[in-house]
Specification:
Order of helices and strands of chain A: EEEHEEHEHHHEHEHEEHHEEEEEEEEEEE
Strand content of chain B: 5-15%
Radius of gyration of chain B: 25 Å
Chains: A alpha+beta (360), B alpha/beta (552), C mainly alpha (310)
Distance between the termini of chain B: 61 Å
CATH topology of the largest domain in chain A: Rossmann fold
CATH class of the largest domain in chain B: Alpha Beta
Strand order of the largest sheet of chain A: 6-7-8-3-9-10
Helix content of chain B: 25-40%
Largest interface: B-C, 54 and 48 residues
CATH topology of the largest domain in chain B: D-Maltodextrin-Binding Protein, domain 2
Oligomer: heterotrimer
Largest sheet of chain A: 6 strands, mixed
Number of helices of chain A: 9
Number of domains of chain A: 2
Number of strands of chain B: 17
Number of helices of chain B: 18
Shape of chain B: globular
Structural class of chain B: alpha/beta
Distance between the termini of chain A: 36 Å
Structural class of chain A: alpha+beta
Helix content of chain A: 10-25%
CATH architecture of the largest domain in chain B: 3-Layer(aba) Sandwich
CATH architecture of the largest domain in chain A: 3-Layer(aba) Sandwich
Radius of gyration of chain A: 25 Å
Strand content of chain A: 25-35%
CATH class of the largest domain in chain A: Alpha Beta
């Protein structure tokens, strides 16, 4: 089921009576059968968008379509959605079985069928053995799987997950992530997954949507968005360690940072922000490159070495003061205090104007 | 036509209420109420008794099962007036009863008539809810009973009441209110009496006589003469054990005379000393030298164990320790007389003198003729003071509320009259331990059935004790003679009859803006003496504390 | 090494025993404090007047000396007179009234409390917080002040007609003014507030209405609190004294608390037959004990108020 949002806007009135555009003229189409990660920093409007889709919030402007059906004015229970919350929101007084059965009771599904579907769902999420336990007798991951089963049991058109992994510890988070991926594959249900964790989003999603201040910044396959950020925000938001950003300038088709030549370009002369992914540096062993720094700290993990370089700020030169990271081959045996010359991989370098827009 | 005539006449009756007949020419709209009893023969107006169906709501506090006699009287009254129904309802206790009436006055929900203490009625009067009974007492109307189903068909019933026949002390209490009007009539009255351990007295008869106190060989057998405080103190020198504990071998007790009610003790002694206490206007007058002298006297008596209060033994009443032989004598309510009699049901090991006989006397009194002046100093001064005879009267009265209709009030009044006929008040007295409110009850020769096998007149009831005393206790009654069961009640009735000559009342008033109500003052008066007894306060500080509590 | 371990083990054990001894003596003392008045009631109910007056007090009575008469007397009938055949002390009538009033008051209070708490905790309407603040502020007014206004109200409703009050009038008068409780509303609202919003959203998505959500989710989740409210309220109703005495006109409408007060006091001497009074008090307490033992688990859970896991 394809989800289409047209000009969707949600305005909240804050305590000091200001209007806050939590979701601002969003046009978005979520393709059928895909798992979409809705990603952004907290307060970016991703959860609001999810609640608008769910119908728990009512938009001020815009429409929402599930396939051909307009659901803009439908109450949540009519939309055919399943919703999973960060804190699971299981009914604490009910057993696993009763929790999963609850939506079916409300839909007045035939009792025998409801029972079968409950067991089927419990098996799907791997909790067939635990039907008679109470939520507090389960681990966090198990509780979240119950929540998913409860969301899916009524065969919704859309599955919505609101930060479903945030309350889990690291190991359970990885497990459950895989579980969600598997369940989504098996059921083929259109799924929207809200998270602030870019790594999680990138690893699980078919496509990601990056949001900031209620506005969609970019949408696409995770690797594609990573490789081709549309703006500085997206470039900075995706990737660990973060992309390094230098203030630079283009002069005569050459890119300089603090008078150091970095690369060449076809762009006209202008001041630029240069984003370089940590893995985009190549150590110039011949020391011909202009782009050189003294290394402050070296961290080696496995075959990768992270060089940490602190550059004191200087007027009109580099970004006021920057600490940047470069990931290089560990076999180079670079030590702190060494001077290293760098070359930059062109595909790992992105040029933005001073507003953060990608320069092409 | 007859009905109209009756209602016109009934209307007249409201206006014409004096002893001398004023005919309907009067235009006064207020009921004329006067306290003059009228001289000479009074011409009566005769009219038919109203035959309208009337329900009278009578509020009291008698619990279920204790109302058998009341129910019987109600039944008889309803048979006399078949158009009247009396709904007798218990409101569980006096506080609830008073609270419900006080709250109900504001919304017009009050019974037709109710039982109450004088301070309750003072409050109802202040709220404008009580009905002056003078309207009936001095009425010159006679009703003819025209209902042939009535048990008194054809009789003429007087509305008026002969006050002369009532115990004067009771009347004084019930017309102490504004304008000297009667807002209530005495109903269940009792007084205090003094019980004496006969076994102890019998063993000191010679010494008591030597001290100039009259006593029979068998004990104190007089119901006419009270002991004086001076004599009480003399008895103390004979009957008290110097160590303060009971000396069984020498028939001495640790404490001489207990007062059950410290409130009554304060108030009655104030009257005996002529010490100002309160007045009907609600003024608190205790801050005077006579009261201070009295408290110093009481304190001295406490100190040498002549007087004692139940708090000494952690009790509310002295009866238990009296039975145990810790106390020689005890002053308490006539209604609780039998609690002082030791019996086989007591825990026998506690009875230091075993099951002993008990005599009763009037409560101690000051010397009324020229006696020795009061001397107050520490030590062994013999206090003998000239004062007034006084004894307490207690127990509820009965009154009618304004809110009721004219007919309701009329029948409520007739019911009060019926409850207090000589015969019924005597019956009530013998059945409950209260005292008759009418003098003629003491000479009533109507036979009353007390138990299925025992009937007596009130005269004969009184005679049980006098016969016993005359025979110096040597009566030849069989063990099964039921007179034994009524001996103590009869003794007390005889004493009360004499004591009734000097009943005084405690002025009743509701709480006002500057002082507490009379009921609170009484409670605080009791605490004052308890504070002195417990030595938590000196007589002076106890009095100023008392004053602080009641005078704002 | 092993010796030290054993030694430590020993001192640990000693400490453990000591702490157990202290704990259990403390609990024992508390239990005694709780049980003594109860024992005293039963003891007094088995004493004669003389035994009650005895000094020093009798602390134990042999079964052969038990004055079962006190209990029998409660069920005696009036021997003669117009009331012959009726019970001397209408124990069963009083009990029946008390039970009916307790049930009605408690049911009423629980329902209004749940609805009000739900409205204040969950529903959004204009002026909600202001209204709630005003209602909470009324908690500062002492209850006695309401007696008069409540009295005026029930009188206006015609439930306190001295001549014609019926049993249903009396029931309405006794129960209606006490069918709400600001404190319980506040208490339950706080519990409702602790229930995460997501539970409400989840239920919405699962297709429940507000009312069904209240019924199916909130009430079961807040059940420990509600049980506490039911217990406290029925205890209050059971022992209510002043109001029921105020608004009932006839003895047969009264509650057992009122009956216990007046019935055993001799109106003349002012003395109370404590033996009979305690016997009837024991009989009044008995149903509460039965309720406690039957619902022990629920009551304990209610009192310890297990939290709601988010």
């Amino acid at each position: 089921m394809e989800i289409k949002m047209l000009d969707l806007t949600k305005i909240f009135i804050s305590k000091d009576k200001r209007e806050v555009h939590a979701v601002d003229h969003v046009d978005l189409t979520i393709p059928s059968g895909k798992l979409i990660g809705l990603l952004g920093p907290s307060g970016c409007g991703k959860s609001t968008t999810l609640y608008l889709i769910a119908g728990l919030l009512r938009q001020n402007v815009g429409q929402i379509y599930f396939g051909e059906d307009e659901v803009s004015d439908m109450p949540p229970e009519k939309r055919g959605i399943g919703l999973v919350f960060q804190n699971y929101a299981l009914y604490p007084h009910m057993t696993v079985r009763e929790n999963i059965l609850f939506p079916l009771e409300n839909l007045k599904v035939d009792k025998v069928e409801a029972k079968e579907r409950t067991i089927e769902m419990a098996n799907l999420v791997g909790l067939g053995e635990m039907l008679d336990r109470k939520p507090k007798e389960l681990s966090g991951g198990q509780q979240q799987r119950v929540a998913i089963a409860r969301a899916l049991v009524k065969k919704p058109r859309v599955l919505l997950l609101d930060e479903p992994l945030s309350n889990l510890d690291a190991r359970l988070r990885l497990q459950t992530r895989e579980e969600i991926k598997r369940i989504q594959r098996e059921t083929g249900i259109t799924t929207v997954f809200v998270t602030h964790d870019q790594e999680e989003a990138m690893s699980i999603s078919d496509e990601i949507v990056v949001m900031k201040d209620g506005v969609i910044q970019q949408m696409g396959e995770p690797q594609h968005v990573y490789d081709h950020p549309q703006n500085l925000f997206v470039a900075q938001f995706l990737g660990t360690p973060q992309i390094n950003v230098f203030n630079g300038v283009i002069k005569n088709k050459k890119i300089f940072v603090n008078d150091m030549l970095i690369s060449k370009t076809d762009l006209p002369d202008q001041p630029v922000k240069i984003g370089v992914r940590p893995e985009g540096f190549i150590v110039d062993l011949e020391k011909k490159s202009d782009f050189k720094f003294e290394i402050d700290l070296v961290e080696t993990i496995g075959r990768d070495t992270t060089l940490i370089i602190e550059v004191p700020g200087n007027e009109g030169g580099l970004l006021d003061k920057i600490t940047f990271k470069a990931i290089v081959d560990a076999s180079l045996k670079i030590k702190a205090g060494d001077w290293v010359h760098f070359n930059v991989k062109p595909e790992k370098m992105h040029l933005f104007d001073l507003e953060g827009k990608l320069l092409k | 036509m007859k009905k109209i005539l009756i209602s016109v006449l009934t209307l007249l009756a409201v206006f014409v209420l004096t002893g001398c007949v004023k005919m309907a020419t009067t235009t006064t709209t207020e009921p004329i109420t006067t306290t003059t009893t009228g001289e000479g023969p009074v011409s009566k107006i005769v009219m038919d008794i109203p035959d309208e169906e009337v329900t009278i709501l009578f509020w009291h506090i008698y619990g279920a099962g204790k109302t058998a006699l009341l129910d019987k009287l109600i039944d008889e009254f309803e048979a006399m007036y078949p158009n009247v129904t009396i709904e007798s309802q218990s409101q569980s206790d006096y506080n609830t009863l008073r609270e419900k009436i006080n709250t109900g006055i504001g919304v017009g929900q009050v019974p037709t008539m109710a039982l109450g203490y004088p301070d309750h009625f003072a409050g109802y009067i202040q709220a404008g809810a009580a009905y002056s009974l003078n309207n009936f007492i001095y009425s010159n109307i006679q009703y003819e009973i025209t209902d042939s189903t009535s048990t008194i068909f054809g009789d003429l019933v007087d509305v008026s009441l002969d006050l002369e026949d009532f115990v004067p002390g009771y009347l004084a209490e019930n017309n102490q209110y504004v304008g000297g009007q009667y807002y209530s009539m005495p109903y269940s009255k009792s007084t205090e009496t003094m019980a004496i351990n006969r076994t102890i007295v019998k063993n000191h008869v010679a010494a008591i006589r030597a001290a100039g106190i009259e006593v029979s060989d068998e004990g104190f057998f007089s119901h006419t003469t009270p002991l004086t405080f001076s004599q009480i103190q003399t008895l103390g020198t004979i009957l008290l054990n110097s160590t303060g504990t009971t000396d069984v071998a020498n028939f001495k007790c640790g404490y001489l005379l207990n007062y059950d009610s410290s409130g009554n003790m304060f108030i009655n002694m104030s009257r005996q000393w002529s010490a100002p206490y309160t007045n009907s206007a609600g003024d608190i007058l205790i801050n005077n030298n006579t009261t201070k002298s009295m408290l110093a006297y009481i304190n001295a008596m406490f100190n040498d164990r002549t007087f004692v209060l139940p708090v000494k033994f952690g009790q509310s009443y002295g009866s238990t320790n009296f039975k145990y032989g810790d106390i020689c004598m005890t002053v308490g309510s006539t209604a609780g007389v039998l609690y002082n009699i030791p019996s086989a049901t007591d825990v026998q090991t506690n009875l230091k003198f075993g099951i002993f006989d008990v005599d009763f006397l009037q409560v101690p009194q000051p010397t009324t003729t020229a006696g020795q002046a009061v001397q107050l100093s520490a030590g062994s001064t013999n206090y003998n003071f000239t004062g007034q005879l006084s004894s307490v009267q207690q127990g509820p009265n009965i009154g009618i509320f304004k809110k009721a209709s004219a007919n309701e009030k009329l029948f409520a009044w007739l019911f009060i009259k019926y409850l207090t006929t000589a015969e019924n008040t005597a019956l009530w007295a013998m059945d409950t331990g209260y005292l008759p409110v009418r003098l003629s009850a003491y000479t009533s020769d109507v036979t009353i059935k007390l138990t299925p096998t025992f009937s007596t007149t009130y005269v004969n009831f009184l005679k049980i004790a006098t016969d016993y005393w005359t025979a110096d206790g040597q009566v030849d009654w069989a063990d099964t003679d039921e007179r034994w069961d009524y001996l103590h009640s009869s003794m007390v009735a005889n004493i009360a009859k004499n004591q009734a000559l000097y009943y005084q009342y405690d002025p009743a008033f509701p709480a006002g803006s500057s002082s507490a109500g009379s009921a609170t003052v009484r409670v605080e008066a009791g605490y004052c003496l308890e504070n002195i007894y417990n030595k938590t306060k000196t007589p002076e500080t106890a009095l100023s504390f008392f004053l602080n509590q009641v005078d704002w | 090494m092993a010796e030290i371990f054993v030694k430590n083990e020993k001192s640990y054990k000693a400490k453990k025993i000591l702490s157990n001894v202290l704990t259990y003596s403390f609990l024992g003392v508390i239990a005694l404090i709780v049980l003594v008045p109860f024992y005293w009631m039963i003891l007094t109910s088995l004493k004669s007047t003389e035994m009650i007056e005895a000094i020093p007090p009798i602390l134990f009575i042999k079964p052969s000396d038990w004055q079962i008469w006190n209990y029998k007397a409660l069920f005696e009938l009036v021997q003669s007179g117009p009331r012959a055949g009726q019970p001397l002390f209408p124990f069963f009538t009083y009990m029946k009234n008390t039970i009916i009033v307790s049930i009605i008051t408690t049911a009423g209070t629980t329902i209004t409390t749940i609805l009000a708490a739900f409205a204040f905790a969950r529903l959004n309407f204009k002026g909600r917080d202001t209204v709630f603040a005003i209602i909470i502020a009324t908690m500062m007014i002492p209850g006695e002040i309401f007696i008069l206004t409540n009295f005026l109200t029930i009188n206006k409703f015609g439930w306190y007609d001295l001549m014609n009050q019926t049993f249903s009038d009396a029931l309405l008068a006794m129960t209606i003014p006490f069918m709400t409780s600001v404190f319980y509303t506040f208490y339950l609202r706080q519990t409702f507030k602790q229930i995460p919003n997501e539970l409400y959203y989840a239920a919405k998505v699962d297709g429940t209405t507000d009312f069904k959500y209240l019924l199916k989710i909130m009430i079961p989740v807040a059940m420990p609190t509600i049980v506490t409210i039911i217990i406290l309220n029925s205890m209050g109703a059971w022992s209510a004294y002043i109001w029921p005495a105020m608004v009932t006109t006839k003895d047969q409408y009264r509650l057992v608390s009122n009956g216990l007060r007046g019935a055993f006091t001799d109106s003349g001497s002012g003395r109370t037959d404590y033996g009979q009074q305690m016997a009837s008090a024991a009989l009044v307490t008995a149903p509460l004990l039965v309720v406690f033992f039957v619902f022990r688990k629920q009551i304990m859970r209610g009192v310890s108020r297990s939290g709601i896991k988010g």
